[in-house]
Design goal:
The chain is of the alpha/beta class and 144 residues long. It contains three helices and seven strands; from the N terminus they run βαβαββββαβ.
Amino acid sequence: MPRVDRYYLETSPDSDARDRFVCRLIEKAVRQGYRLVVRVRDLAEAETLDQLLWTFRDRSFIPHGPDPNPRAPVWISPVDGHPETYRLLIQIEPELLDPQWERYDRIAEIVPSAQRNAPAVRRREEAYRNAGFDFHEHDSKTAE
């Protein structure tokens, strides 16, 4: 059954703490064998995350890039239309939900806690449930 994990963070949408949380989530997913797309707002946000993935942990190496690459399990992208080989979608900007979201096996959505009950957030939850996704919510601290 496809699954959605929504993480509510006690941080602002553009904070370094949020990006570090996303890096740890990416690292965990890669260790579990996922090929994943990280959906970002724009190229500037993609570059920020790209740089942070090189530096957020001293001994971590996560192959990634701004373009699909068979040798890199992580594609950081602000665009739609991801290849079928990517089975996990990490939505840093949930309001920009990938229009092909239903084809993923898993979705991880990052939402600021302050937006927990926003109408758009609840509409996405309803869409996930109606599509048959197993839905889980997590209150997450951003500290390591």
